[in-house]
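question for whoever is on the cluster today: can someone run the full assembly for these? two chains, 1097 residues total. i dont have access anymore since they changed the login thing
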Amino acid sequence: MDYSMEDTQNSAPEAQQANKLNPSGQKSDNQSVTKRLQAELMQLMLSPSPGISAFPDADGNLLSWTATITGPTETPYEGLTLKLSFAFPNNYPYSPPTVLFKTPIYHPNVDFSGRICLDILKDKWSAVYNVSSVLLSLQSLLGEPNNASPLNAQAAELWDSDQAEFKRHVLARHQDLDEE
Amino acid sequence: MLSTVPLNSGRRRVCGSVFSPAALEAHPKSTSDFQREQTPVASFQEPTDSSSTFRADSQSTSFATIGGLTDAASPEEDALNQARQVAKEFLSVPNLGFELLYDFRDTDGSQVLKGWNRLSPPSKETAEALEYLMRTSPWTLFEWYGNDIRRHFLVNLRTGLSKLLKTPEEDGLLRTIVDCLQLARRIYLAPVVRYVLPLIATSHQGGFLAQLQSAFNTVVQYSLPWKKISPLLARELTQDAVVILGIDTLDEDFDADRMSLDGMEMERGYSVSYKDWRQELPEAQARMMVEGEDSCVTIARDRLLEFLNGLQLVGLGGDQAQKVFANVMNIMMGDFIRAAYASQWESPSTVPQHLEQWVENVYARLAVQVLAIIHSDPAGTQSGAMEVSLRDVEKWKEMGISRLGKLRVSELFDVVVDWPTSSGAVEDLRRFTSYSSGARLYVTHFFSLNLLQRLLHPGASTVEILQVYISIIRAFHILDPKGVLLDRIARPIRRYLRDRDDTVKVIVSGLLADPATTDGQTATGDTLAELAAELTKVHQHSLQSNRSELDYDDIYWLPDPVDAAPDYKKSKSADVIDSLVSLFDSKETFVKEMQTLLADRLIQKRPNYDQEITVLELLKVRFGDSALQACEVMLKDISDSRRLDLTVRNDQILSGYRKQAGVGRLHAKILSRFFWPEFQEQEFKVPDEIAELQGRYAACFERRKDSRKLMWRNALGQVTVELELENHTFKDEVTTWQATVIYAFQSDSSEPATITIPELADQLEMTTPLVRSACLFWVSKRILTEVHRDTFRVLEILPTEDEEHHAHAAGDFSDASDSEAGDTANAAAAAEAAAAAAAKESAEAAAMEKMNVHWQFIVGMLTNQGPMALNRIVMMLKIAVPGGFPFSNEELREFLGGMVSKGKLEIVNGGNYKIVH
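^ ran it for u. tokens below:
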């Protein structure tokens, strides 16, 4: 009992201190996030990869972006334009961005609200990934879904059984967001 | 002397015989006169009420008493009355007009006095009556006479005087008035002084006289409104004070006039001029203002003092005159300081000493003399008390110094511009600012305003501003070593300089300028060579001046001045370079500019680069090695490449490549691309021979330095060209592209080669403007001629004078050699213009290149965010592009318009741009 008291007493100031330090730490984080995102944007602009593109939203803090993927050839998504949203956390790149498909998409690893099941966006995330690598991964995910852990079981099944039917579903669900 | 008693009885008898008991009625004229004139007297005493409420007047009471006494006439009183009557008869002033007075104002007055019957001695009877009165009741008589003076003045003189006052202001008007008044005063007082006062005890005389005097003074003051007098008085005072204080002699024109009159410079022992004073020895200086006064000064002084005496006598002196005098002296002080010290900026400055001496010996002297006359004591007694105490003199000196400070502040901008020849002025100012923080505030406030008006505007070049800023730093360092004033002054300048694009460039080129060639002269045209000199000069102390505020061993430590700004930080020293470099937030901007300029200089062909090395070493002392690393690498590249060039050459010789005839030698400068700034260059194809040489050179280089690759920068460099034509030769150093163009004209055939510009452009892969510029260059050198537009031919045979003459004579008769010179000059000018055009084109291409990066941003933006309007695009670009978006809305609109016409964009509803897939 005595010891636990001591413990709480000892730990309390530390916690407080952490709290105190937090805002300033976050601030500097914010700056470094902005810097990093700016660098990524510059890289995307200077060496654009075909089929992917991304740009910050107009809110001015660079923490939310919109990205565009063109469906790869020889996949059911060929010729489609798919929009995604990126939301970067304050400790980016140490945590992954939250990526959602804004365009309705029919895909084994994407659910109906656009959430994506991709390991590098979850536990396999590493600070060396960036917007362009995430987009490239997503682009390849369109052609090679991971049917082992589907979010959309029907799609996973169809992908394996009936490609034509799958494509019909894809086209039926697809709907361009351009003219919003 | 008669015994008292018989005289008494005699007088009584006489009185009785002459005057009837009803004395007043016996003189109806004078009485009626008197009665009639009551009204003005009343208005005099009750100016607000001019209607005749006269009865309360003291005068009338006294007469009433007399009248009353007459009624109850005891013999004693009767006699008294009669005596009074006689006395009044004698004393009363005849009602003569002002004109008379005016006409005689310049005389000594005796004539008038006689004319007015003021000097004739009283008859025996009168004398007796007076004596009797004096013994019995002198007061009544004097009181009456005082009133009579007023009456007379108001009736006879007042209108004349006010008429005189109304004459349009002219010099000496007041003197005339004072003369008149003085005469009047004598008329009034003469009989009294002469015949009445001796009759009473000496001890009482003063009192009675003063009574009359004050009666006169009051009426004078009343009838001459001070409002009108004071400007006249100020005028009179100014006129003489200017001479007495020596201000007139300071006027250049005045001196010139006098000198031309005299034909030679006057030997003047006496002078208040600061210039003369400076040249004297200290002992002579002390005497200069005390001894040997100019005759004109003496005359003026006497004139003034006499005038003031009169003024005081007639009652116009006193407090009010003192005020006017104070005003005049105040103005004089300013005038003197302005006249004596304006633009006298020599160092060391002795202006304050001179000023103090002047105040003490000239200014205070006049003040003492004048104040001794017009003091406020109405009795006119010369009191022994000094009107001017030493403390006053000290105060005047202080005032003088502040005025001097004010003058210097107003001159400060010019002082700074003339720095360092004007350091004396700053010494004066320093004395001024040491008085109070108010003075310091005044200096900074005023000077800042001045700067805004005169310096910080688009009309001033950056070099000028920097030059002035440097002078300001130096001047204010002397003015205020603590640097608080400088801190305040410098803020707006620094803010302004930061906004100027070319500030860095000017500073850096100034640093790199050659101090040896520009020694002695400061800003030359567009470089600030002074900075280079400064750099070598100051760097010794800059090392030791790094003392912090917390140096506990510093026994000269002082706290920051009270008026220091909260974020004030003392600059280490008057270090100009530090101040200039610290203009910018980071050293990066500075270093970057340094790199660009250094690059330009290093790729030029020169025997050595000692100057650059020195500057770089000096800068390293300031900035540290790391900041200037890139510059260092650049310098190292140059020295390395010289060695490398030698080695490669040796290799070539060893491996058997001999110098072939017709092919020149190739030297290279090997630059580490990473550390050099981007060069704007025009790409073109070098002649095959050169390319081969380059290839061989590169091969040798790569053998020496593994895994390094040479990239040739063809446009940077110089070529020594030797041309042999039929009858003339040419040898000079030209740029690579000029050499390439002329090389293309080389041919073996005997016919001179003729090539057109498009051909050349094709052949050399060079832009047309550049080709044209090169061709025109050669035309100016008389190697090519332009046979048709854009077609050039080698000028193998230089036309002889005669031929040329003929050619021109055929056309017109203008002077051949002239037109020839004109032709070449024209061609040279054209070549330059063409080169400029080419440079512009390449700059435009570079801008286009930059725009392409932005195009990527625009594409990304429009792809992801959907169609956008122009404004929104600009806004987003400003946010997203690192370093901001350098183009205007109009430029972007044009660019986007181009993209629309190329089919990459389309304009959708509401003018939004949309990407075309």
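summary bc i know u wont read the tokens: The radius of gyration of chain B is 49 Å. The longest strand of chain B covers residues 718-724.
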